[in-house]
Fold this protein.
Amino acid sequence: MTRVNKFRAAVILLLIIVLVAGGTLIWAKYSRSQPIEITLPPPPEIRGQISITGAVNAPGIYLLKADDSIADLLQAAGGANATAHPDGIELRVLSADEAEAPQKINLNRAEAWLLQALPGIGQTRAQAIVDYRQRNGPFRSISEITNVEGIGTDTYEKIKNLITVVD
């Protein structure tokens, strides 16, 4: 091998050593950086309203919280009634449109204390509704409430969108 070839081989070998050493130093410097910390947001809390119907003592719409169990929801609805069958209870989470609609009071099942929540219905009128229902049987339409003593068309107009007559 000639002197020039030996010189070229030495220069190439030196360049290779410099590149490997430099790459190793750079890799060592950047590979020891701090670990990246990733934090995930907590899971969304389930909230809303749930419709509970079927063989429960107080069917209706109840607030749903993240830690509620089915047993908690059934307890909120007054528990299963005497005729309850495991297939007779329905739980349904309401959509945003349904949740915004006010819950209607069933004239055929509501007790006097619940009827008092209606505008223009106090303790006396609420008891008159219960008495009318006991004497005449269940209401067949919501307009029949005007037959109850003390409830006229003005009161009916205030409450007609808040009542129902489901059996």
